[in-house]
Structure to design on (103 residues):
């Protein structure tokens, strides 16, 4: 299965670290690595959807996902700098000062 990442490059590190942490959890538990089904921005925050063949690690994985989603609300989606959730004409995004002005 393939999909497109539907978010900006500024969240690359968050997604990378989350993927590493999920892989480590699965390997430590000796279960199959969960399949990612979608990665996107929604309401200014990262959304990371995943499917499990073995639910034994689902709770700790969801904790990691929630932490990554919270981190995204403080990280510019465009460049990865410190950002804020901003509402501009009913469009919510997390951006730094520079990218808030350039939008």
């Amino acid at each position: 299965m393939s999909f497109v990442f539907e978010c900006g490059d500024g969240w690359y590190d968050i997604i990378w670290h989350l993927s590493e942490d999920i892989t480590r959890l699965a390997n430590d538990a000796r279960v199959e690595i969960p399949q990612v089904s979608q990665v996107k921005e929604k309401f200014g925050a990262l959304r990371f959807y995943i499917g499990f063949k073995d639910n034994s690690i689902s709770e700790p994985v969801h904790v990691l996902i929630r932490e990554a989603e919270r981190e995204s609300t403080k990280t510019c989606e465009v460049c990865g700098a410190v950002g804020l959730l901003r509402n501009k004409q009913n469009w919510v995004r997390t951006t730094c000062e520079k990218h808030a002005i350039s939008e």
Notes: The helical segments are 12-29, 58-72, 97-102.
